[in-house]
UniProtKB/TrEMBL annotation:
This is Neuralized E3 ubiquitin protein ligase 2. InterPro entries: B30.2/SPRY_sf, Neuralized, NHR_dom, SOCS_box, SOCS_box-like_dom_sf. Residues 243-278 form the SOCS box domain. Pathway: Protein modification; protein ubiquitination. GO terms for biological process: intracellular signal transduction; protein ubiquitination. It comes from Cyprinus carpio carpio. It comes from the Eukaryota. Residues 8-237 form the NHR domain. GO terms for molecular function: ubiquitin protein ligase activity. Gene3D superfamilies: 2.60.120.920. PROSITE patterns: NHR, SOCS.
Length: 278
């Protein structure tokens, strides 16, 4: 069952002291240091609604990467935004955060089927050795929820070989911490009172990284622009019928060999840019 969703995603005006938002509030950049980069979604998420970001910019010299998760704390009620999502925000309770690494993001449940909220799950050889395949389904299915795949996988920078690189991106060959990588968080109800948190990386579900999250309070997305991750951009996911803009993009892309050919078409520059990068 697909959720009836589609709110325009923005970052909350309450954020870490080193974060600068662009005018649209869809891009968050850490302007100095490696910490104080915690951001929140403007509105609570609905069940099955993904908060998806793309890594826009990296910064060399730091150890660690993007962190993402959920919190039941309304950002407006925070006296101060914690310096770190892990451990500071998690230690406040009612928060579940996952640290993205270059490898080992797959979740393996212990014998009791539990995953500690706020802690990095373990990874097994079976998950790491799973063969990568081209995505043929139009949706990613998690339990009884479905998420359109169209925006879950990023695209390479426009160039002569971008059409080849884009196919590689679809096989999840792009490292999770790299630029253009797309990472999202979503929660899936488990009964009337609880939910599981899932992290989606480049179109692939990493499994339930936190379980039995109470759903009696609204849940906001948490994005920590931490260390080597310097800037992220929200990717809007369309549920239900595609917009006219998306239909135009798909029609144009279907009739060109690669994205550089867009420069030869007599189209508005904004439309060319949209077709190149989305």
């Amino acid at each position: 069952m697909a959720a009836v969703l589609g709110q325009f995603m923005e970052f909350h005006l309450v954020h870490g002291t080193n974060v600068k938002l662009d005018p649209s509030r869809t891009q968050a950049t850490r302007v100095e240091s490696f910490a104080n980069g915690v951001c929140f979604s403007k509105d609570p998420l609905s069940p099955g609604e993904i908060f998806l970001v793309e890594v826009e910019e990296k910064e060399l010299g730091w150890c660690g990467h993007l962190r993402i998760g959920l919190t039941a704390h309304d950002p407006r009620t925070l006296d101060t935004v914690p310096e770190y999502s892990l451990p500071d925000l998690v230690d406040m309770g009612d928060s579940w955060v996952f640290a993205i690494t270059r490898n080992h993001n797959k979740v393996i449940e212990d014998e009791g089927g539990e995953v500690e909220g706020g802690e990095q799950p373990n990874v097994g050889d079976e998950a790491e050795n799973k063969p990568k395949t081209f995505f043929t389904d139009t949706h990613l299915y998690i339990e009884n929820m479905s998420i359109p795949r169209d925006k879950l996988v990023g695209r390479s920078r426009p160039g002569r070989y971008s059409h080849i690189l884009d196919d590689l991106y679809k096989t999840n060959a792009l490292p999770p911490t790299a630029r253009r990588s797309r990472i999202g968080v979503v929660y899936v109800p488990k009964g009337q009172e609880y939910a599981d948190m899932h992290i989606i990386i480049n179109g692939e579900d990493m499994g339930a990284s936190a379980k039995k999250i109470p759903t009696n309070k609204p849940l906001y997305a948490v994005v920590d622009v931490f260390a080597a991750t310097k800037s992220v951009r929200i990717v809007q996911v369309e549920y239900g019928f595609a917009s006219l803009q998306t239909l135009c993009r798909k029609t144009i892309q279907k009739h060109i060999i690669h994205r550089m050919a867009l420069d030869w078409l007599e189209l508005p520059e904004l439309l060319k840019h949209y077709c190149k990068y989305e």
